[in-house]
Write a structure and sequence with these properties.
single chain; alpha/beta; Dehydroquinate synthase-like, alpha domain; two-stranded antiparallel sheet; binds NADP nicotinamide-adenine-dinucleotide phosphate; binds fe (iii) ion
Length: 367
Amino acid sequence: MNVFRYFMPVNAYFGKDCISQKKEAMCVLGKKAMIVTGRSSARKNGALQDMTDALDALSIAWVLFDEVGENPDLETVVRAAQMAKTEAVEFVIGIGGGSPMDATKAIAVLAANPEADSNILFQDPKAKALPVVEVPTTAGTGSEVTQYAILTLHEKRTKQGIVQPLFASVSFLDPKYMEHLSSAITNNTAVDAMSHLVESYLSANANAISEKIVDMGLSYWKDCIPALRARQYDAQVREKLMLASALGGVAIAQTSTSIPHALGYFLTYEKGIAHGRANGMVMQAYLDLFGKENERVQHVLSCLGLASTEELGALLRDILDCPETFTEDDIQYYAKRAMENPPKLATFPLYALDEEKIQNVYRNSLL
Ligand code: NAP
Ligand code: FE
């Protein structure tokens, strides 16, 4: 067995009302916090109220930045960091889907380096950061247990991760916040979680521990398939989706993501396709790159109770709504752009992926 590393330093609490029950975990982080959310969901689902109640009970002062949009861009993060600096906050709390959670990590870096400009996010892996708390309200990204934060860079017409590996100090995972999450967002984000699990297992970076974590995550995800198809989710399904998502996060924290993520970013930037759905759209063609008889692909399919990549493709078409149309020009452009990310392409374990193979993945998925 080759030497491998397993690292998961997040103090993660899981379960109903975990913020109010375990709020003391935030005491050591500072005396003033900035809460970062999207525009409305954190208010509606009760997570913001639970957090402000907890902070008030702990006598921790707080300010709110509630302007993070989907696929947060650098400009938003810079604006929030300015507020964090002016308000002299000592830690940052992200509440929401992956967008506010990722934005929070980038804000934590910028606020801890007031003299630096925003390039620091892409240049200095050792830059310090304020402590981060994360509260996921979707079950997809696993950002509450990963060291990654992905930002939209308009200048480059794509999304890119910040270079600081930044794990939350504390995460609170309470499935109750998803009670009223729409079926479209539930299914799109569930596919992101599944995609993390599958990409991690099939990555060149997979190891003995990450593989077992994926098995666990896929078994929870499999149990949710009927609910995802019916677009009806009870409390138990919400819990399993959140567990699958967190396990997917733990897995990609070890291995990083792989080809579907590298390809999906352009679908999101150019067509506004939600992140998880973008991964799902290229999943079957990605698995087919491994060849029909590949044992590792067979393992993943059997964990999901599926017999073939065609069955997985049919399942994804059933649970995702994909109305977009694409042209051959789109395919050529996306493939050209995907080739700009060699480290991600190198996570494919079997052979070097050239532009023609990437074009074929897009073509088989989108035309
Ligand atoms: P999102 O962009 O965070 O949120 C999507 C939508 O869901 C927003 O409109 C949001 O509303 C709404 N929403 C969130 N929670 C809700 C709830 N409980 N009830 C009702 N509505 C709710 O979507 P996401 O898929 O979770 O995150 C995607 C982002 O995560 C992408 O930028 C992606 O690149 C990133 N990502 C990060 C990692 C990582 O490891 N860090 C991994 C995968 C993906 P509001 O705006 O009002 O809150
Ligand atoms: Fe993802």
